[in-house]
């Protein structure tokens, strides 16, 4: 068993020796380096690229005098174990010739350079083979015919329509392609790049904007034939209907592409030529310098994509693109083997007999500390990524942008908040900020976080804050473990060193491919709390967490509330929350008149309405809206938008005279206004959009919503001419729909509107709940998807790019149509169409992230209506299919999966009963095993109990001689394991591979507790555990645990 120990002493209680060890690195003497110490040459073309490069240095070295014939300006420093020399091309002088001259001088001065890095920005070449976006990274990679960089003549490429190669270039030194291949094989996560950017931004806050992704930078890819108007300096006036349709990404992290980079003598800004070269030669990126380096200064070329190599160029993305490229280059250096002199550092560190820290040579001590610092920093970055990847800053950042300056001061100055903030010693008590929907609780939460951050930043790391925003649109945000892991990540980020319990958990679980669990997370949070004087935690919108998660979440909050300062916000009338915080201090949240006045005046002043400047009328608007807002910020927002939407002062007065103090009545009024628009096309668009957003199963990207809204009655093909722009949707919906620019998701203005539409008869009339189901059926049945399954992954990807809503429709359509008998006929029509069914099955499995065997063309084509209906728990549809007797009940896919295997794997007991009553064979097997084996692997106790109650053999064998107990043990399904053992499953059965269930558990590196439980069961059954054989399966750390 793991034994966790950590130091409970605060920093000020550490003995003097510990303090000395912590601080001696800052007082060491700077080492003097020579030209020969530098082994990596880093060249940039632009000053902004050089700024990004310098920000990646772990340590900057003193400059060295240049030889008389070298006029380059160098920056020297250390990155990881490598000493790096950096320089930039002369200002305004770009291209291959300039790069070659700069590289030649660098090599003459620094003769120990082993290889070069050409790092900076470039123009992307997106194609159906490479979904390149702005902010992505392209890395040169040699192919059979090219060395990674291809020189070409831009002028001839345009004028003659041919790709005029101007020579063949060398490949980079072998160490670089090997490092690139290593990162590709390890599937380098963008989180490492983002960790470097965050670290650089922390060192230089002035660079935060450059090192942070922002949705303020538009990512517009126009059709190749659509040229930019040279008289316009931006693309704001370009025709957005000529944008290429691309599916939204699930993350804003940069994607890394490996392949050929074309290097020419001019900037590529001709989209048709770009596309032709990308298609014919596999070009991923265009730039201007690399061709001047490769023959005499072999380099790896790394480019951040800042534009699309077309006429629609902008400098908006340049700084961020340069930053991500520099961060990737730093990762490359962490993989490339060091030279002998650098390697000696690492070797010395590994030898405990050599104590460089206490050496008489300051150079040795400094180098050792740098190496240790780098290793520790990388280790911490990996641990933080493992703890949580939840984007906790996202909503906070958005709320800060929306918050009006000087609002919310009443809360910060309140006695309850001040007492909570100033209490010095534990035990503490949580504070509950409760308020009705729309009072501005989330914005106030962001204000409290800002205020506490300022306190923590001045407390020399003795105080820390963590926060979390629950969002009803994001189900994962309300998961208790997700919240705890996010809090643990944030606290760990502010600690140095990390508590021993966290590093121990990482070393034990990470190598097994396991995530940190609930109990371990709580243990680690306590360790963080013990290392700090005070910990603050802010959790917003607790009421938006799913009801099944709130119980665990509330008990955990109360468990920690005496050890750290916790403040939560929620609606006041939920019984479980009000009971939990009944005896704790609370703050009643309502929108204050002073805050509303600031907001309303700012909102009016930012428009060009005719009454702006008419102070008396503006005061009247403010007074009337505040009078009717009754403490609800949301009401004020909706009312001012309605008033500002009127064309004249007279119309605004009429609108002002009819505003309501009731939120539901206001929703009704706004919905009626939408329904009464004269243009019925706008009415239809708005009501469909509202219905879709009120009933979708997950948040939609704006591009997904616009795609499904293009569906028209009696259409056979999707027509992009009917696809509305996002701006049109927002306009038609009259302020009830908003776009989140941070995530590109589009949603209703407030979750209370969703509740109104779903529960109020008028809301259901305007936005019927069947709308999404009908649209999905019409969409999936289009002739666009009548060609059948796709031959390969690239074709699937192209489909998803062209039809952004298709993945959602394939995943959720069945759940939308279930329960609506009026749609059964259309559902059966779709299921009986072989090509539509194959496309649907293939995209569903591909988008779910399953292995290729599940989404290959053969498996997709072999699905039948009954197996597909089983996916979506379609009980009535399945009954009709069985009654018609057109499909054998045990008909299977190419992998052997029947409707029974699928229904039991989905824990659908009702459908499983129906199928077995119709003669389905419970012993029928797919590639994995029978229904019993698949259920054991899935861990569903309910359907397992049903199958066992039928009298099925609890020890039935699959093709590999495994019993259901083997399958459950391999997956660590403790509930199913106990159920099987209770039903008499044999603990000592040996599979064809020679493994008992215990052996399966050990080989798959299940928890020690789980393995010990199986060992106890074997001992109780009088069976030899076979410890020697088991130990052979274990890695050394597991052997030590045993």
TrEMBL record:
Keywords: ANK repeat, Repeat. Residues 1-28 are annotated as: Disordered. The keyword Zinc does not apply. Residues 406-571 form the Nephrocystin 3-like N-terminal domain. Residues 1-15 have a biased composition (Basic and acidic residues). It comes from the Eukaryota. The keyword Chaperone does not apply. InterPro entries: Ankyrin_rpt, Ankyrin_rpt-contain_sf, GPIID_WHD, NLR-like, NPHP3-like_N, Nucleoside_phosphorylase_sf, P-loop_NTPase. One of its GO terms (biological process) is nucleoside metabolic process. ANK repeats lie at residues 930-959, 960-992. Residues 685-762 form the GPI inositol-deacylase winged helix domain. One of its GO terms (molecular function) is catalytic activity. This is Nucleoside phosphorylase domain-containing protein. It comes from Exophiala bonariae. The lineage of its organism: Eukaryota, Fungi, Dikarya, Ascomycota, Pezizomycotina.
């Amino acid at each position: 068993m793991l034994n966790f120990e950590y130091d409970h002493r605060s920093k000020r209680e550490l003995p003097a020796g510990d303090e000395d060890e912590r601080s001696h690195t800052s007082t060491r003497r700077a080492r003097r380096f020579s030209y020969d110490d530098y082994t990596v040459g880093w060249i940039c073309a632009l000053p902004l690229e050089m700024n990004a490069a310098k920000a990646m240095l772990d340590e900057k070295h003193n400059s060295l005098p240049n030889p008389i014939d070298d006029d380059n300006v160098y920056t020297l420093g250390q990155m990881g174990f490598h000493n790096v020399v950096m320089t930039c091309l002369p200002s305004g002088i770009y291209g291959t010739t300039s790069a070659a001259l700069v590289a030649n001088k660098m090599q003459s001065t620094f003769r120990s350079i082993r290889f070069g890095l050409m790092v900076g920005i470039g123009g992307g070449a997106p194609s159906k083979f490479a979904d390149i976006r702005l902010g992505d990274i392209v890395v040169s990679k040699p192919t059979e015919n090219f060395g990674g960089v291809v020189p070409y003549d831009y002028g001839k490429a345009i004028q003659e329509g041919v790709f005029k190669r101007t020579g063949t270039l060398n490949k980079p030194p072998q160490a670089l392609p090997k490092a690139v291949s290593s990162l590709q094989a390890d599937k380098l996560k963008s989180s490492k790049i983002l960790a470097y950017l965050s670290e650089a931004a922390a060192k230089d806050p002035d660079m935060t904007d450059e090192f942070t992704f922002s949705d303020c930078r538009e990512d517009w890819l126009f059709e190749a034939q659509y040229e930019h108007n040279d008289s316009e300096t931006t693309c704001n006036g370009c025709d957005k209907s000529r944008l290429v349709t691309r599916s939204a990404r699930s993350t804003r992290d940069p994607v890394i592409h490996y392949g050929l980079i074309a290097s020419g003598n001019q900037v590529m800004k001709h989209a048709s030529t770009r596309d032709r070269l990308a298609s014919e030669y596999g070009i991923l990126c265009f730039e201007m310098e690399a061709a001047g380096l490769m023959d005499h200064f072999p380099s790896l070329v790394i480019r951040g994509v800042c534009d699309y190599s077309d006429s629609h160029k902008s400098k908006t993305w340049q700084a961020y693109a340069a930053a991500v490229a520099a961060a990737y280059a730093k990762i490359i250096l962490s993989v490339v083997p060091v030279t002998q002199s650098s390697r000696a550092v690492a070797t010395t560190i590994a030898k405990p007999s050599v104590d460089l820290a206490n050496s008489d040579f300051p150079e040795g001590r400094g180098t050792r500390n740098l190496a240790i610092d780098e290793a520790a920093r990388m280790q911490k970055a990996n641990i933080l990524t493992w703890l949580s990847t939840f984007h906790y800053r996202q909503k906070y950042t958005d709320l800060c942008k929306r918050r009006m300056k000087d609002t919310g001061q009443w809360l910060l100055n309140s006695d309850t908040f001040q007492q909570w903030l100033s209490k010095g010693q534990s035990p503490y008590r949580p504070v509950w900020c409760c308020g009705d929907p729309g009072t501005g609780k989330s914005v106030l939460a962001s204000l409290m976080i800002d205020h506490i951050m300022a306190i923590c930043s001045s407390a020399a790391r003795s105080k820390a804050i963590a926060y979390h925003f629950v969002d009803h649109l994001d189900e994962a945000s309300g998961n208790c473990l997700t919240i705890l892991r996010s809090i643990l990540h944030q606290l760990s980020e502010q600690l140095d060193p990390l508590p021993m319990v966290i590093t121990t958990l990482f070393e034990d679980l990470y190598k097994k491919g396991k995530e940190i669990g609930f109990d371990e997370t709580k243990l680690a949070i306590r360790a963080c709390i013990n290392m700090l004087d005070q910990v603050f935690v802010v959790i917003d919108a607790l009421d938006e967490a799913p009801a099944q998660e709130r119980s665990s979440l509330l008990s955990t909050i109360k468990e920690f509330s005496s050890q750290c300062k916790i403040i939560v916000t929620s609606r006041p009338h939920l019984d479980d929350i009000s009971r939990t915080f009944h005896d704790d201090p609370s703050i009643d949240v309502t929108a204050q008149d002073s805050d509303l006045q600031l907001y309303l005046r700012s909102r009016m002043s930012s428009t060009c309405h005719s009454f702006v400047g008419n102070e008396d009328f503006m005061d009247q608007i403010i007074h009337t809206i505040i009078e009717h807002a009754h403490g609800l910020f949301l009401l004020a927002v909706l009312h001012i938008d309605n008033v500002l939407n009127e064309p004249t002062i007279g119309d605004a007065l009429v609108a002002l005279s009819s505003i309501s103090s009731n939120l539901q009545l206001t929703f009704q009024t706004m919905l009626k206004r939408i329904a009464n628009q004269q243009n019925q096309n706008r009415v239809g668009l708005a009501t469909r959009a509202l219905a879709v957003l009120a009933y979708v199963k997950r948040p939609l990207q704006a591009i997904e919503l616009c795609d499904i809204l293009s569906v028209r009655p009696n259409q056979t093909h999707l027509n992009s001419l009917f696809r509305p722009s996002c701006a049109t949707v927002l306009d038609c919906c009259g302020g009830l729909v908003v776009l989140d620019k941070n995530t590109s998701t589009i949603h209703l203005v407030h979750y209370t509107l969703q509740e109104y539409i779903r529960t109020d008869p008028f809301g259901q009339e305007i936005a019927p709940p069947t709308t999404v189901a009908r649209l999905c059926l019409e969409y999936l049945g289009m002739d666009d998807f009548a060609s059948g399954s796709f031959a390969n992954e690239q074709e699937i990807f192209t489909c998803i790019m062209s039809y952004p809503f298709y993945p959602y429709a394939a995943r959720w359509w069945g759940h939308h149509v279930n329960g609506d008998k009026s749609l059964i006929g259309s559902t059966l029509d779709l299921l009986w169409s072989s090509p539509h069914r194959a496309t649907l099955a293939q995209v569903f499995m591909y988008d779910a992230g399953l292995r290729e065997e599940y989404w290959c063309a053969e498996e997709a084509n072999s699905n039948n209506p009954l197996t597909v209906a089983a996916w979506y728990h379609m009980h009535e549809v399945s009954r009709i299919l069985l009654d018609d007797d057109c499909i054998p009940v045990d008909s299977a896919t190419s992998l052997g999966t029947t409707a029974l295997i699928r229904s039991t794997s989905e824990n659908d007991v009702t459908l499983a009963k129906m199928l077995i009553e119709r003669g389905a064979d419970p012993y029928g097997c797919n590639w994995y095993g029978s229904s019993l084996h698949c259920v054991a692997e899935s861990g569903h106790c309910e359907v397992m109990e049903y199958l066992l109650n039928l009298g099925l053999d609890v020890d039935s064998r699959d093709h590999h001689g495994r019993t259901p107990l083997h399958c459950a043990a391999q997956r660590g399904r403790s509930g199913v394991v106990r159920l099987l053992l209770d039903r008499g499953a044999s603990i000592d059965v040996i599979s064809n591979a020679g493994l008992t269930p215990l052996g399966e558990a050990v080989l798959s590196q299940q928890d020690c507790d789980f393995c010990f439980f199986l060992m106890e069961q074997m001992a109780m059954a009088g069976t030899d555990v076979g410890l020697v054989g088991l130990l052979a399966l274990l890695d050394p750390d597991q052997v030590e645990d045993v």
